[in-house]
Amino acid sequence: MLFNSYIFIFLFLPLALAGWYLLNQLEKYTVAQIFLIAMSLWFYAYFDVSYLAVILTSCVVNYLFSFLLTKRDSEGFKKGMLFVGCVVNLGILGYFKYYDFFLENLNAVLHTDFTLKNILLPLGISFFTFQQLSFVIDRCKGDAPHYSLADYLNFVTFFPQLIAGPIVLHSELIPQFQDKARRKFDTDSFAQGIAYFSIGMGKKVLLADTLAKAVNYGFGDIAGLDTVSALVVALAYTFELYFDFSGYCDMAIGIGKMFHIEIPDNFDAPYKSASVKEFWRRWHMTLGRFFTTYVYIPLGGSRKGKVQTVVNTMIVFLLSGLWHGANWTFVFWGFLHGVGVAVNSIFMKKEQITGIEKKKVIGKRMAQIATFVYVCLAFVFFRSDSMADGMLFMKRLFSFEYNGSIFAIAEAVNVSEIYIVTKVLSMKAPQLLAVVNLFILLVIMAVSIYALFQKRTREIVENCTWKTGFSLKMSILFVWAVISMSGVSTFLYFNF
What we know:
Structural class: mainly alpha
Largest sheet: none
Radius of gyration: 24 Å
Distance between the termini: 17 Å
Shape: globular
Order of helices and strands: HHHHHHHHHHHHHHHHHHHHH
Helix content: over 70%
């Protein structure tokens, strides 16, 4: 079930909120938890009922690990459980996500003919697997208590962050569910939740989904691109991915606030970064936190010299790339970011990396532009279906040719809000239609750039006073996004 769908907004969410607050008002706290778990499982099963077996099995197995640790607490047993827990969780993820990828590459290298299973990837498996893996590791290290089954299931299945993150830690979510004061309806939190949700849906529906049309057309005909159109498509995808994912995370945070539950931020204006290293402190922050805490630091972090630091960094980013998908394009994307971060760590001073020294404004701006260009080019491979497509895209981008394909891309955008205008032009002045379409595309790109340099959603929402002007803006944004949802819309990170 998508957040940006009619059934979610007008049926599921009102039912979930009403049931949650009513049961808690009646002090049926355990029943309220069971109700929320059931609603979350309905939300998850809406895509495919068969997915329930995967997530419930994963939850039961990991909860069993936690239970066994209450029976024995010797260091040897903890280490054994840590090993088993990692193998089981990564094994489940590996089977569903990488089994065919492994066999495909094995067939290519060894000229074997193993049959691919074409396994259907359960939604959100990367997110809920890492979430539970973090809990198991913390339990084995003695950094997490054994929770009740209801608390644990709420932690894993809480629907706002279930299929798209952020990757939440047990210490962030479970204590909030245990706090009875948070079971009461809070007007301020609910109002902020609505604002968060409206802004997030605006990002997702009005910007990301519109840009996606240009991106899909461009990557569907890479050979037909010229330098101008390839540049526009690359920029459009860089914007689309951010607005899609950050918008969905904003909606998740907003829904959480409606339940009086705080979900951590996942983005902090990443395209303002002055280095690749800073970019990863601002982009998909909960994933970065996971890899830093559970991979990079255990490997030694930056404590064992420059060479080992580079090795550790590359391991983390290659794993990050592979986490995003079973394709060499993701691995290469991770490699590019690993190289960028390693170079920053070795050759740049801290103040150059963070870009906060006020006396070096020009240098900071140049660093921000260079970082954005690097990130944008790396995303070309992230979006490409194969390494060959990625290299072809780069070839077309730097071909310095022009063939007019930008007009075909502009036509593909086909903004529904100006349907009447384009219809009239097609009948009365068809020679102007291409120019108008191009103008609309450029306006959308300009609006996207403008939106990137505005305040973060948290700053906008938490500093608002809910006067008439702000309420009117949120209302218009919400209604506009709801009306625009009539088209088919997907969420990019469902693929990862």
